[in-house]
Amino acid sequence: MSTKKKLANKFIVIEGLEGAGKTTAMQYVGKWLASQGIPAHKITYTREPGGTKLGEYMRDIIKMDIEDESLDDKAELLLMYASRVQLVETVIKPALAQGNIVIGDRHNYSSLAYQGGGRGLDMHFIHSLKQLSLGDFKADFTIYLDIEPSLGLQRARGRGELDRIERLALDFFERTREVFLSLVKQDPNAVSIDAAQTPEQVEKAMFKKLECWVASLT
Ligand code: Z5A
């Protein structure tokens, strides 16, 4: 089967802590797809939370600081899923059905890592929520950009003021990273890349991983 055919209808997700370079990495995936002969109009880019008009409002709420009231951890999780379901049902599934390749900036692993690992919410609860709201829908390939939380936050800080989640203590991000690493270890369709490398090295490593993954597809 040709590489183009193998790649049609595939959902590729980039995961990682803040400052890992996900936004930058999305462009690398796009560049690699172009090198495989995929035209730009066959690639759909998404981000979570957000990615739809309604989802972007939810993203604002998630990032918002409200005086005298903090967002409950479970409410935060449910907002992540509300945004995700809206995105999957109205953007991702229709794009895949048209043979597009979807590149996602974060997906389900972020909820397990941040809300399960960082916040300490019950993992079974998150798994059940995922199953009830999205069934077996999942990424075909996940690229996790691994970075020490302190370095990631240093990069994020260089970009401007930190938001409600980014201001959390370092141990929150250590717990989040632990879950990301264990999820990737258990998933044969996920790989980890050292995001502390230079952008050029990250790009090269990503191209290699993408090539290996595509070669494994039948
Ligand atoms: N969240 C959640 O809790 N649960 C969920 O289920 C989901 C999300 C889906 C989304 O915020 C927040 O929601 C996030 C997790 C939570 N919270 N936090 N904290 P966001 O989308 O605004 O934040 P983000 O996803 O973490 O994106 P980011 O901070 O923009 O990071 P990034 O996209 O990974 O990094 P970047 O913008 O590509 O790069 C950051 C800077 O580093 C930039 O100046 C780059 O030029 C630089 N950079 C990138 N790569 C390199 C290398 N290799 N070397 C040196 N410098 C680099």
Helix fraction by DSSP (H/I, runs of at least 4): 55-70%
Q: Total number of helical segments?
A: 9
Counting helices, strands and paired strands, the structural category is: alpha/beta
Strand order of the largest sheet: 2-3-1-4-5
Query: Which consecutive residue ranges, at least 5 long each, have pLDDT under 50?
Result: none
Cα distance spanning the termini? 7 Å
Rg, alpha carbons: 17 Å
| Shape, principal axes of CA atoms | globular
What's the overall average pLDDT, rounded?
Answer: 96
User: Hey, roughly how much beta strand do the residues contain?
Assistant: 5-15%
Number of strands: 5
H/E element sequence:
HEHEHHEHHEHHEH
Largest sheet geometry = 5 strands, parallel
Give the quaternary arrangement of the chains.
single chain
Heteromolecules bound? ligand Z5A
What labels describe this entry?
globular, 218 residues, alpha/beta, binds ligand Z5A, 56% helix, 5-stranded parallel sheet
Briefly characterize the structure.
This protein is of the alpha/beta class. It is 56% helix and 12% strand.
What does this structure look like?
The protein has helices at residues 3-7, 22-35, 53-63, 73-97, 108-118, 123-134, 149-158, 170-186, 199-216; strands spanning 11-16, 43-47, 101-105, 141-146, 190-194. It is α/β, with parallel strands linked by helices. It has a five-stranded parallel β-sheet, sandwiched between helices. Helix 3 packs antiparallel against helix 4 (73-97). The longest helix is centred in the middle third of the chain and has 25 residues, at 73-97. It binds ligand Z5A. Residues 16, 18-24, 48-49, 80, 106, 110-111, 114-115, 155-156, 158-159, 165-166, 198-199, 202 line the site of ligand Z5A.
